[in-house]
Amino acid sequence: MYPVFCSAEIPTELLDELIMESRKGLAAIGGAGALFIMQSNYIVARHGSRPPIQPFESPCLGRTVEDIYGSFKRGVVPQDYFTEHTFAVVDDETASTKTILVATDADGSLQTVRSDFWSSLHAMVPFEMKTITLQQSSAGGNGLISKELIKKQDADYDAMQERQKAE
Fold it and tell me: Is 158 helix (H, G, I), strand (E, B) or coil?
């Protein structure tokens, strides 16, 4: 599971939308994975978060991604069911842009990129598996991994495959 830390107060309906849209994006590639909204420092979970999310006060309110990363690496998230390198942060921008901050240290140091809800798991799975780096994700030149960017990359890949078959 991919932990999601809330550094800002966000309506639970928006967290529900994040969960549902991320599942749709992941289903588009036939992937497996789930987001888990970190609602406390005490975690007992064997499946991802499911809507409707009940109101809660996040233990990460006001914290920076670097602070959250430190907690993540110190084992706040039990590794039995959670990722080792990749997590997300719901921050002050989330409500207005419907994006989250995806963070990974799969390359050895903390790196972040913004992602729309649909693309969040679509991006996080290959980061965690180390099959693509954040730089290779080509975040559209604007630092955002989006449904539109992923659909364009998929179409470009399909076109390349067709050209190779024709040669």
Answer: helix
